[in-house]
């Protein structure tokens, strides 16, 4: 991919800044060579990378780290960079066993995750308005969700595909992009 193509996706989807950094978190378990004391065989390792905009401090879920390079995530970069923000008021009914916590400081993230999985905690901006329990088996989560899409139909499709339960969209409205998105390559 040449430099001109990279400019289409190598930017913040919210403010369009190209001032990005990648934060790599590594955790590993390695055997120790008894002769040298050096790391030897890898038993287990996990690497997670998050690209963040230094201008507005938002994570960039449309970008990932692959083979040492930041690259676009094919199923979402075009939608997030070329799309508009949409705000949905929605209700998701999920199995109670899928809700890790519904009180305390982690409740918002736990309810968002129960409703939309990783999308609810990494890609969408979610605000849990309230939730209610239907007996011991179901939790109904009422949320405001901001997501990026190129059309109303695509926004609905993204919500439907991300939903981990029964979804009802009570309203959906297109928002304007923040002013920084109006001019080409801003830093």
Describe what you observe in this structure.
The chain is α+β, with helices and mostly antiparallel strands and 187 residues long. The protein has two domains: 3-80, no CATH class; 83-174, Alpha-Beta Plaits (2-Layer Sandwich). The protein is 21% helix and 42% strand. It has four helices and eight strands. A four-stranded antiparallel sheet has the order 6-7-5-8. The protein is flat.
Q: What descriptive keywords fit this protein?
A:
187 residues; alpha+beta; Alpha-Beta Plaits; 4 helices; disordered C terminus
Provide a short characterization of the protein structure.
The chain has 187 residues and is of the alpha+beta class.
- Kindly report the CATH topology of the largest domain: Alpha-Beta Plaits
Portion of residues in beta strands equals 35-45%
Give the helix tally: 4
- Can you identify the CATH class of the largest domain? Alpha Beta
Low-confidence stretches: 180-187
Order of helices and strands: HEEEEHEHEEHE
Number of domains: 2
- Gyration radius from CA atoms, angstroms: 20 Å
What is the number of beta strands? 8
- The spatial strand order of the largest sheet comes to 6-7-5-8
């Amino acid at each position: 991919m040449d430099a001109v193509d990279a400019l289409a996706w190598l930017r913040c989807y919210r403010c369009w800044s190209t001032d990005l950094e990648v934060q790599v978190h590594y955790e590993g378990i390695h055997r120790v060579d008894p002769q040298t004391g050096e790391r030897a065989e890898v038993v287990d390792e996990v690497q997670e990378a998050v690209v963040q905009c230094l201008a507005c401090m938002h994570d960039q879920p449309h970008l990932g780290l692959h083979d040492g390079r930041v690259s676009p995530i094919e199923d979402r970069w075009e939608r997030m960079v070329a799309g508009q923000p949409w705000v949905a008021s929605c209700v998701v009914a999920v199995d109670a066993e899928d809700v890790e916590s519904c009180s305390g400081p982690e409740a918002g993230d736990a309810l968002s995750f129960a409703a939309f999985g990783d999308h609810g905690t990494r890609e969408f901006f979610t605000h849990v308005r309230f939730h209610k329990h239907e007996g011991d088996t179901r939790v109904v989560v009422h949320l405001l969700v901001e997501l990026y899409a190129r059309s109303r139909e695509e926004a609905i499709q993204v919500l439907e595909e991300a939903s981990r339960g029964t979804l009802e969209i009570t309203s959906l409205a297109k928002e304007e992009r923040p002013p920084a998105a109006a001019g080409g390559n801003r830093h």
